[in-house]
Every structure is written in C-alpha cells, then in structure tokens.
Specification:
- The protein folds into 3 domains: 277 residues, Metallo-dependent phosphatases (Purple Acid Phosphatase, chain A, domain 2, 4-Layer Sandwich); 71 residues; 36 residues, no CATH class.
- Helices cover 26% and strands 23% of the residues.
- The strands form 5 sheets. It has a 6-stranded mixed beta sheet with strand order 6-5-4-1-15-16.
- A hairpin with a 4-residue loop joins strand 13 and strand 14.
C-alpha cells in the first residue's frame, strides 16, 4: 500500500496582497505527477485545504480541478480530506455524496446522531492495488471544544489538562471502533503536538479551552502512523510515528527555508516506512541581504541584477522579495526609494523591514575557532539568530533536542 500524505494547502491564500493561485496550479500539477510516479493508492489531505472560511469560487474550482487531474492520472486513487481550523467545515464536506462516486471522502465535521458521536463513521477502509482492504484510516477533522464529550474546562489536581484527556479519550474510542479488523490503523488529524516545531507569524495557535498543544501519546500505540496537519514545517515526532507533511509551499517569509513537499507512506506486511518527497517551489523567495542581517539600499539593485531574474515569468509566478534594510536615513524616505528600485524588477515584495542598527552591528558573529569551543546546541542557537534575528524560545530548543536525540 502506497499513500501520499499532504496538508495545509491554504488555497486562496495571499502574501502581502499577492495572490497564490498560479503557484497552487503549478504545485498541483507536480503533485499529479508525483502521484503517478509513486504509483500511489491513496492521498490523505490533513486539513487547511482552504485558507479562509469563505473561499472564492476560483478557490473551489482550483480544488475540484486538482481532484479531477489526480483521478485522471490515477483512476483508482482513493482520496481522504479532513478539515482544518482554516476550513469552512460544512462547505468542505457538502459535496461529499457527489465526490464519493469519484473515490473522494471528505470529513469536515464530527459525525453525530443526536448527542452521540458515531466513531465508526470516521473509519475509512483503503484498498491496495489488488482491490483488497489493506488499511483503516481514522479520518478526524479539526476538533473543537464542542466535539469533546464530557470535557470540563476546569483543571483538577496536578494531572494533565482536561482538554488533553478529552482528546486522548476521543482517540481511544476511535481505536475501540477499529478493533477486530486485523488491518493497520492510520490516523489523520489537525492539531499541534508537543515537540513539534511551530512557524512564527504563520500558523495560528489554535486553542481548545486554553490549550494549544497535546502530548503525542494521545494517539495510542494501536496507530501505526498518524498523518497530521497544521504545522507548516515537514517533521516527524514521537520517534517517527507521528508526521507533519508541512504546507505545500511557503505561506510566509518565515517558511522560506523549509524543504516543502509531501510524505510517502509505504505499508507492507504490517510494517511501515515513510519518506519525505521534496517538491519544486513554484515561486522563489529572495532575501536581501542573503545573510539575514540589515543591508544598505544602494546595494539592492546590484543584488537583483545578479539574481538574473526572468522578465517573462507570469506575474503570479514571480519571485517574492524579502528586504531587511539598515535605517541609515528617514524610514519614509527609505521605503519610498526601495519601492522605486523594486518597480524596475520582476519581483513581488513579500516583506520589508527597517532595522535601526549600524552595518558593523549587523555583521555575523565570528565563528568559533575550533569544535572544542562550541557544541551542536550553540551552533543551532547561532544559526537560528542569523535566520530569524531573534533568540530561540524554549519550545525551539526542545524541538532541537528531540531531533538530536532521534539521530
């Protein structure tokens, strides 16, 4: 069984006012090619299909055109889509009855009969290339507080948060509903697990009763793999048993350094192997200056000339430009002059920051003279500061330590 896991498409998203539709079309074309090349039996989309609760007609056409192309390339492809916190859950699953005829299952909301949650209705069987049932997928949409039965928001004693307990119980019920099938169980969800590295200024901290992250062990050991959405950086946690595919391409400047792509899940004889497939970035991201420190405006034109930009690129595929300029004159004058320079080049301005430091202060700190004078953690902190121009928080350090521990 070969499954492609992806999430966080954010169709309809814009960056600093620039639409991303052309980039999405290009990315969907490559995903179609990937599904065909990898001979995928199924595609899992773990939420945030759309970027907002009221997607335009064009955004919806983009989605349905992509689904058509996927199925034309792989006629027996099975597709499961679940909702994320950005999605209009009801609208996402409204055409479910029609889409089922084309191998697509959409789970946007929690299935209920009155107040009772119908956990078995969240279990979807996937067939292998021979047409036999091979995997059960627990298709869980973004869970809101109202989706967690019996939950109290009041913390009692020194135990774990009642929200985390409620999420744990939710998935225990799913496991019980799947028991006895004899098939591997794959989870889908849209949430933040502790240990996952978040993206500053890009992802919303989705809150359920004041909690924004849950422990990975809310997913019992019965789950062979859990395919999550929400965190935009591709990453594995909990020893590789839980994975974020990451967003399809950078949704903000802070994601420009990520290796965006999809995750291939291979299941054979009850064993699983996963691997990251890096995808082509539809539009480039250019940082000036490249080292992430503050540059001077007079050097910008030369840097853009050296980039050898293609003037014939469609407007929606032009590179995004991130500027970090030293405040060596009045900010208003600097901004005006920067826009005049940019106007002569085929780029889209994604971000511009004016930094009140001297050029000497903006130079990188000297590298340690030898390995004896540093450590992996010190190098991580230095590189984080270089890229983000701020110190890492404790959660960043925890994620780094977890990653080192798994090597």
């Amino acid at each position: 069984m070969r499954i492609i896991h992806t999430a966080d498409w954010h169709i309809g998203q814009s960056l600093n006012g620039w639409g991303r539709d052309d980039e999405h079309r290009a990315w969907f074309r490559e995903l179609t090619e990937t599904l065909s090349r990898e001979q995928a039996d199924a595609l899992l989309v773990s939420g945030d299909v759309f970027d907002n609760l009221n997607p335009s007609g064009e955004s919806q056409r983009l989605l349905y055109d992509a689904i058509r192309d996927f199925r034309e390339a792989r006629p027996n492809l099975q597709i499961i889509m679940t909702s994320g916190n950005h999605d209009p859950a009801g609208r996402l699953e409204a055409p479910d009855a029609l889409l089922r005829a084309h191998g697509v299952r959409v789970v946007g909301t929690v299935r209920r009969q009155g107040e009772e949650i119908l956990y078995p209705d969240h279990l979807i069987r996937l067939r292998n290339a021979d047409g036999a049932d091979a995997v059960i997928v627990a298709a869980v949409p973004f869970l809101r507080a109202s989706d967690l039965p019996g939950m109290s928001l009041a913390r009692t004693g020194e135990g774990e948060s009642p929200i985390v307990t409620a999420v744990r119980n939710w998935h225990s019920e799913i496991i019980s509903a799947a028991s006895g099938s004899g098939l591997p169980l794959i989870g889908m969800g849209h949430l933040t697990c502790t240990g996952g590295l978040e993206t500053e200024g890009s992802e919303r901290r989705i809150m359920i009763g004041g909690e924004h992250a849950v422990s990975p062990d809310v997913f019992g050991p019965e789950f062979l793999f859990v395919a999550l959405g929400h965190l935009h950086m591709p990453q594995l946690i909990d020893g590789g048993r839980i994975g974020y595919s990451g967003s399809c391409f950078p949704m903000s400047v802070s994601e420009a350094g990520y290796r965006h792509g999809v995750r291939l899940i291979e299941i054979e004889d009850g064993a699983i192997r996963t691997s990251h497939i890096q995808m082509t970035r539809p539009a480039a991201f250019i940082r000036f200056p490249e080292n992430g420190h503050a540059g001077v405006l007079e050097e910008l034109a030369g840097a853009l000339d050296a980039a050898e930009l293609d003037p014939d690129l469609p407007h929606g595929m032009r590179p995004f430009l991130h500027l970090r300029l030293a405040a060596d004159r009045a900010a208003a004058s600097l901004l005006s002059e920067a826009h005049q320079v940019i106007a002569g080049y085929p780029v889209r301005l994604a971000d511009i920051r004016i930094v009140r430091v001297s050029r000497d202060e903006a130079q990188a700190a000297p590298r340690p003279a030898s390995l004896r004078e540093t450590s992996p953690e010190m190098l991580f902190v230095e590189e984080f500061r270089r890229i983000n121009m701020t110190d890492p928080e404790e959660r960043h350090m925890a994620a780094f330590r977890d990653a080192v521990a798994e090597v």
